[in-house]
Write a structure and sequence with these properties.
The chain is an alpha/beta fold and 285 residues long. It is built from eleven helices and seven strands. The radius of gyration is 18 Å and the shape is globular. The structure holds adenosine monophosphate and manganese (II) ion (3 copies).
């Protein structure tokens, strides 16, 4: 059923969101979400709380995660839905992926200090809910607080991105590892927000889809907070071309920062196979 208000992508204080898993569950329910997943970056530490909160509200739930991957020099995000959050290989892989974040954050702060912005490491840390998950989003919040930028969108235009102060190149998980961790933990791997990657040419985007499918990846996020309607059409066509199922998720991070609220998305195109049809056995009621 493509006409379902599923929201299968968002972030809590366990990664770079500002709401706790319980508050997100309540917001999803209040916004009319009919199937929900919390997909924190590189971390499943919020999954039991999210599932319990959803259960208490009568909100069907799929466990989730969003894994940072380096593919052909680009950072790509792979969402895993329906994974067993206690799977030892998945937990070990995620712990390894989180591992370099503190050192990276210190280098980011050094670069910002070099352009006159002091105390960024400590400043970002104040916003961090999980000490293993210091992210660029936390630095962005500090730069707004410090009056350097008006909002976090301005931060990512002027800082923390390639070629700008505070950008540190980083090697995340490989595409194959991320897809395998998800799949062997009982889940389905999904290419997150595919329109957001600066592939140098169309061939590289095809390579991402082809290699993802070859590793066992089975779905792509077609409708998501950062996709225009034209991008949703483009990736609906790509899903059909590559025989992938389709996912839908807001990528909500914060009431103050996110353009798209939980559940406030167009429905999936009726030609697509929704990823939740493949995951019916993993939905927690
Ligand atoms: P990290 O995993 O530390 O590299 O941080 C990535 C996070 O930063 C993303 O999940 C977003 O929450 C945020 N982010 C990255 N780029 C942008 C951007 N251009 N605009 C807004 N948020 C961004
Ligand atoms: Mn994020
Ligand atoms: Mn992402
Ligand atoms: Mn996300």
């Amino acid at each position: 059923m493509t006409i379902l208000n599923a929201d299968l992508h968002c972030h809590s204080t366990v990664s770079d969101g500002t709401l706790a898993p319980e508050a997100l569950a309540e917001r999803a329910k209040a916004n009319g979400v009919e199937l929900w997943s919390l997909t924190d970056h590189d971390e499943v530490g919020g999954q039991h709380r999210a599932a319990a909160a959803a259960h208490a509200l009568g909100l069907p739930y799929l466990s989730g995660v969003e894994i940072s991957v380096t593919f052909a020099g680009l950072t790509v995000h792979i969402v895993g839905l329906g994974v067993d959050p206690d799977d030892p290989q998945l937990m070990q892989g995620l712990a390894h992926t989180r591992g370099g974040r503190e050192r990276r954050a210190r280098e980011m702060a050094d670069q910002l200090a070099a352009v006159g912005i002091r105390g960024a490491f400590e400043g970002a840390l104040k916003y961090v809910g999980n000490p293993e998950l210091i992210s660029r989003t936390h630095f962005a919040r500090f730069l707004v607080e410090a009056g350097v930028c008006h909002d976090t969108h301005e931060v990512f235009r002027r800082f923390l991105t390639e070629g700008k102060p505070g950008y540190v190149e980083h090697h995340w998980a490989t595409l194959g590892d991320a897809v395998r961790w998800i799949t062997q933990a009982g889940g389905i791997a999904v290419i997150a927000h595919p329109a957001r990657y600066a592939h140098p040419n169309p061939t590289q985007e095809y390579a991402l889809f082809a290699e993802f499918a070859a590793h066992g990846g089975r779905a792509v996020e077609v409708v998501t907070g950062s996709h225009s309607s034209a991008e949703a059409v483009r990736y609906a066509d790509m899903a059909l071309e590559f025989g992938l199922a389709a996912s839908r998720g807001s990528d909500f991070h914060s009431p103050d920062e996110s353009h798209t609220d939980l559940g406030a998305l167009p429905y999936l195109d009726g030609r697509l196979t929704p990823v939740w049809e493949l995951l019916a056995h993993r939905i927690q009621h």
